[in-house]
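Explain this protein:
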Amino acid sequence: MNSLFPLFEPLRVGAMEVPNRLFMAPLTRCRAEAGHVPGALMAEYYAQRATAGLIIAEATMAMEGNSAFISEPGIYGAAQVAGWKAVTEAVHGAGGRIFLQIWHGGRACHPLMNHGAQPVAPSAIAITNDEVHTPEGKKPYVVPRELGDDELPGIVAGFKKAAVNAKAAGFDGVEVHGANGYLLDEFLRDGANKRTGAYGGSLPNRARLLLEVIEAASGVWGADRVGVRISPLNSFNSMSDSDPVGLVSWLGEKLSGLGLAYWHVMRADFLGEQSGDVMTAARAAYRGVLVGNMGYSPQEAAEAIAAKKLDAVAFGTPFLANPDLPARVKAGAELNAPDAATFYSPGPKGYTDYPAKAG
């Protein structure tokens, strides 16, 4: 058990002290009720997982009309704030800590989920390596509309309002979603951003929108209550970048001066098409709490933390299937296997019915 000890050392994460370094990664589960409102089932789910060092709640619509999934939550209306408040109260009542991941779906949205509205993106380039689940079944993604520079202050304002609402809902902070081929990531990586002007071309220009959103969220919360997540290698949603390691090195230096709670880096590609060592570059560039994610075993996570390559690791599907993951890891207990068929289905099956460890 001693080899796993680094996972259970407390950690200072911005303004908070967390009791362990097993974070719960944000996981889209599509269990929100009508109007993208979190309900009692979501409160139960997150409270079950309150022993995580930090729960990072799922991708949540910062502004209305940008749904990329069926039944994902939002944080733009009063009913959603009230729904999330019940979630945060349940998590805090169970002794946990929870950040909200604020998000804009960008070109991954579809008109059938958004009253016919065309999705928006940095450039008019559609996702081609997948189809989207809609109320009418799986459909091809549509070509998005290229946002004008004059529209981007409105995007930033939408994220700021989401940060305000997250505070009203009782969260401990927010994570800015700059990963997985959604709007902020689309601007950041040059495979999706082909625009010219202040938000295209050079890396500083492509990162401008992400940095403006981070600044806006920090203005609401204080930077030490704001995290940011990126996925420099992930080709999900037809994403790529010509120099992912260079992107990580540049962004890590830039983020180091902001006093953030943490930087959350996905180290791999869901589809296995792109590879590279972005974590070494991230650690070299970033002077702050670095959270790794994707495919870590508890043993590898503990070794990486002990070697100071990382400060914490965010676990996704292991937390999905094991509400008491820290206790199981500490005891060397067997883990429940996740049921992929219920990842996005409605109801408690495969959501709140995974058993905790006996005793």
Notes: Residues 2-342 form a domain with the TIM Barrel fold (CATH 3.20.20.70). The first strand starts at residue 11 and ends at 13.
